[in-house]
Write a structure and sequence with these properties.
By secondary structure, this protein is of the alpha+beta class. It has one domain: B-lactam Antibiotic, Isopenicillin N Synthase, Chain (Jelly Rolls), CATH 2.60.120.330. It has helices at 7-11, 15-26, 40-54, 58-62, 125-152, 235-240, 285-296; strands at residues 4-6, 30-34, 74-76, 93-98, 170-176, 190-193, 199-204, 210-213, 219-221, 229-233, 250-252, 259-266. The strands form two sheets. Strands 1-2-10-7-12-5-4-3 form an eight-stranded mixed β-sheet. A hairpin with a 5-residue loop joins strand 8 and strand 9 (219-221). Helix 3 (40-54) crosses helix 5. It is globular. The chain starts with a strand and ends in a 7-residue tail after the last helix. The mean pLDDT is 97. Bound molecules: 2-oxoglutaric acid and fe (ii) ion.
Length: 303
């Protein structure tokens, strides 16, 4: 069972919401939440904006194709990402944007690919504005939820203070066309993977497709209408919290209807130490994330 959580009750410390959150984070590693600061209308606006982008002629999307850069900003065509080395590259398309450091920020001098400049399509100011607005608001929602969830599992909030002032947070529009006729058993909308970072705040158009791997085998379908969110945890926070929250594999096989989803991958600043708390080790968050990007984006393989 994937618990469904009232975000405001959780924030207020309601014992039922706290207990359900703790169980979901520690057992299945997935939750759904409602009653956040992001409204259904704001999610619908972002979905519409992405839908418009993905329906553009290929030549216009090519103008912002990330494969001509050394980073992951802009359009990722079908086949641009291979999240499972045992499967074929995914048949979804994506559009990625992320955090841009303010001028003069100490991390700016390091020319880090996780803070690369965004690539926006020309002549689409409404697209850029809507997605940028959604990005800004989703950062606030994700940060608040992460704090509440860490508290619910009994974590020490001090470790997370100041860790998200320049978040390596990536916002993605996922476009799954109808499952192609040529698709075989190694072809997926997105193949089985765990997310790489801390918390994923996932909005979808409400259609089914996402499946979560059950401990002990089998798959659980999960869906949420616009205005509700699927929450899951990545490898980084599982490591950082010594397994207090779980990074659970999931996938989208795809079906006979197109589908859109919008994950925000919420991650800390590049130089935050995400080694297991108390271990005395040092693992820079940005090093882990860059390694995973280089393993999975086809155009970055070998970097
Ligand atoms: O589209 C979905 O529901 C899930 C997408 C996903 O797992 C991802 O982008 O990491
Ligand atoms: Fe994922």
């Amino acid at each position: 069972m994937i618990p469904r959580i009232d975000a405001q009750a959780l924030a207020a410390g309601d014992p039922g919401a706290v207990a359900a959150t703790k169980a979901g984070a520690q057992e299945i590693g997935f939750l759904t939440v409602y009653n956040t600061a992001l409204t259904a209308a704001e999610v619908e606006a972002a979905l519409d904006a992405y839908r418009g982008f993905f329906k553009l002629p290929v030549a216009l999307k090519e103008a912002v194709n990330m494969d001509r850069t050394k980073s992951n900003r802009g359009w990722g065509a079908q086949g641009s990402e291979q999240v499972d080395p045992d499967a074929n590259p995914d048949y979804k398309q994506v559009f990625d944007c992320g955090f841009e450091l303010p001028a003069g920020h100490p991390l700016a001098a390091r020319d880090l690919k996780v803070y690369a400049a965004n690539q926006w399509p020309d002549g689409m100011p409404a697209f850029q504005r809507r997605i940028s607005d959604y990005y800004a608001k989703s950062l606030v929602v994700a940060k608040a939820l992460l704090g509440d969830i860490i508290a619910a599992v009994g974590g020490d909030a001090r470790y997370f203070e100041d860790a998200f002032s320049a978040p390596m947070a990536l916002l993605r529009g996922n476009y799954y066309p109808e499952r192609p006729a040529w698709a075989g058993e190694k072809d997926f909308g997105i193949a089985t993977h765990t997310d790489y970072g801390c918390l994923t705040l996932l909005a979808t158009d409400g259609s089914p497709g996402l499946e979560v791997r059950k401990r002990g085998g089998g798959w659980i379908p999960v869906s949420a209408p616009p205005g509700e969110f699927v929450i899951n945890f990545g490898e980084m926070i599982e490591m950082w919290t010594n397994g207090a929250v779980r990074a659970t594999p999931h996938r989208v096989v795809g079906g006979d209807a197109e589908r859109l989803s919008i994950p925000l991958f919420f991650n800390p600043n590049y130089d935050v130490n995400v080694a297991p708390i108390g271990s005395g080790e040092v693992i820079e968050a940005g090093v882990h994330l860059t390694k995973r990007f280089n393993e999975t984006y086809v155009h970055l393989k070998g970097d």
